[in-house]
Amino acid sequence: MRIMGLDVGDKTIGVALSDPLGWTAQGLEVIRRENVEKDIGRLSEIAQEYGVEKILVGIPKNMNATIGPQGEKVLAFIEQLKARIDLPIKTWDERLSTVAAERMLIQADVSRSKRKKVIDKMAAAVILQGYLDAGAR
User: CA–CA separation, 125 vs 116, rounded Å?
Assistant: First the structure.
């Protein structure tokens, strides 16, 4: 079962995909947000192209596990996604996913300017890999 992982932000959406067996996650692309129709249209194209069967969306929670303003925005986006894409949508706690992605890129000696271009898809891969590792398939 191929799963698409999303790291939804105000300016970008990081997209990652699992392998067909659901063991590993790889960053795919970063969507520059324009409007909901275009954003979800691109996600729909990716889902069709890769035969995605489930979507996993990272929910940014506060360190005390409450949902703050950014989390509320992501939940609203999920509702719009559900109305337009007929696939199961799951959520996953994404606390510190961007920090983990940043650390991996720094360890790989990726320059600051290149990190900025790929950090969102790497964060999406971290979110999706966490889900896969937890056996939540």
Answer: 15
pLDDT 10s digits, 1-47:
899 999 999 999 999 999 999 899 999 999 999 999 999 999 999 99
Domain count of the chain?
1
Among 12, 23, 18, 24, which Cα is nearest to 47's?
18
- On the 0-12 / 13-18 / 19+ scale of CB atoms within 10 A, 93 is middle
Structural domain span for residue 40:
3-133
Cα gap 68→61, rounded to integer Å:
7
Containing 54, the helix (H) or strand (E) segment is strand 54-59
